[in-house]
Specification:
By secondary structure, this protein is α+β, with helices and mostly antiparallel strands. The protein contains 13 helices and 19 strands. The structure holds guanosine-5'-diphosphate and manganese (II) ion (MN). It is an enzyme of class 6 (ligase).
């Protein structure tokens, strides 16, 4: 689960991290009070969307002006005019896709005088099975680009979960960022604070880009992006309240109600698969035959008929979907349950696009018989390769 920058900063502040003071604007009537709570002389007005690259982003509407989604105002009046220009407008950044995202929340922050910009993140490192910091002196820019062109400028500091963060980790971080003296001490403290916040709230990712040194020698988190591990959210009901459903895909919200692992994608072939590995293989083979999947969907090992029906409804409700591939290996999940679920779903929502079903495993003969006798217009397939070719051909035949 992702949260907004202003929420992430409030959370980090609670753990004692150095964050500029600021106030959120959730509706237009909040603007005056929020701007008045910042003393200036510089007000930073920041679009709050779940996507990065806001500073270099562009609004769709001309009324929003040319200045991007993060703006520095020199007076309260200027800050107010930026709020009016940006509020409710659609911001397109490198990460939003061409459609952009509507800015429904803004954040007004005390401006900082920047001496240096760094990159700092914490994540779960699969290699070590622990939390690692990733740091670079090349802050404020696209870290993927730095990783590609200057991998030597990216430093990874792995932390053993048994010891937790230690002073030497902080010193290594300071060294990686070229900090000495008091700033090195601040970096040491920051590493402990961020690690504590990360572990205590079950984050999966924390990114500070940029982490800055101010002109008066203070380390400060100028941007903050936080993702929580959704599987641990039950332990943090107060964090679940930070969820902003308007930032999420409606289909993904619907899927989460049924505990389905669903990710919306850009292609045309809707996929219903059990098991994440098989789902990945299914996406790959669709691409191999030259089409693009419309979603990743893992209905899980022991899905009920109800869950299968819900999954099918979500796929068919997507106007992008021009064909559906059901690819199930019946292990714990039995093929006849899937077959009944598919039929129930088709009867409930109708079927306007070609449907290929490939079943294998437990009760496969029973499953195939149920589908064959249902009278539905289903293209049966014998294996994954055959299934992928059939759905790709069917989708192309319609274009
Ligand atoms: P992003 O573009 O979505 O990553 O948004 P950021 O919060 O990182 O802001 C983009 C850029 O705006 C930063 O990299 C800074 O260069 C600039 N910026 C943000 N806040 C301030 C500030 O308080 N003072 C100054 N001078 N620049 C700022
Ligand atoms: Mn940033």
């Amino acid at each position: 689960m992702n949260i907004h920058e202003y929420q992430a900063k409030a959370l980090l502040r609670r753990f004692g991290a150095p964050v500029p003071s600021g106030a959120a604007i959730l509706s237009a009537s909040d603007a005056d009070a929020a701007i008045a709570s910042v003393t200036g002389p510089v007000w930073v007005v920041k679009s709050q969307i779940h996507a990065g690259g806001r500073g270099k982003g562009k609004f769709v509407e001309a009324e929003a002006g040319e200045l991007g989604g993060v703006r520095l105002a020199r007076s309260a009046e200027e800050a107010k005019s930026f709020v009016q220009q940006m509020f409710g407008r659609t911001l397109v950044t490198k990460q939003t896709g061409p459609a952009g995202k509507q800015v429904n929340r803004l954040y007004v922050e005390e401006g900082s005088a920047i001496e240096k910009e760094f990159y700092l993140s914490a994540l779960v490192d699969r290699t070590t099975g622990g939390v690692a910091f990733v740091a670079s002196t090349e802050g404020g820019m696209d870290i993927e680009e730095v990783a590609a062109s200057h991998p030597e400028k990216i430093h990874t500091i792995a932390i053993d979960p048994a010891t937790g963060v230690m002073p030497h980790h902080g010193r290594t971080l300071a060294k990686a960022l070229g900090l000495t003296g008091d700033l090195a001490k601040q970096a040491e403290k920051l590493s402990a604070t961020l690690y504590e916040a990360f572990v205590a709230t079950d984050m999966s990712m924390l990114e500070i880009n940029p982490l800055i040194v101010t002109e008066d020698g203070q380390l400060r988190c100028l941007d903050a992006k936080v993702s929580f591990d959704s599987n641990a959210l039950y332990r943090h009901p107060e964090l679940a309240e930070l969820r902003d459903l308007t930032e999420e895909d409606e289909k993904e919200i619907e899927a989460s109600k049924y505990d389905l692992a669903y990710i919306a994608l850009d292609g045309t072939i809707g996929c219903m698969v059990n098991g994440a590995g098989l789902a990945m293989a299914t996406l790959d083979i669709i691409k191999l035959y030259g089409e693009e999947p419309a979603n990743f969907l893992d209905v899980g090992g022991g899905a009920s008929e109800e869950k299968v029906t819900a999954a099918f409804k979500i796929i068919t409700a997507d106007p992008q979907v021009k064909g559906i591939l059901v690819n199930i290996f019946g292990g714990i999940m039995k093929c006849d349950v899937i077959a009944n679920g598919v039929i129930a779903a088709v009867k409930a929502v109708g079927l306007q696009v070609p449907l290929v079903v490939r079943l294998e495993g437990t009760n496969v003969e029973e499953g195939k018989r149920i589908i064959a006798e249902s009278g539905l217009d289903v293209l049966p397939a014998d294996d994954l390769d055959d299934a992928a070719q059939k759905i790709v051909a069917a989708v192309r035949g319609r274009n």
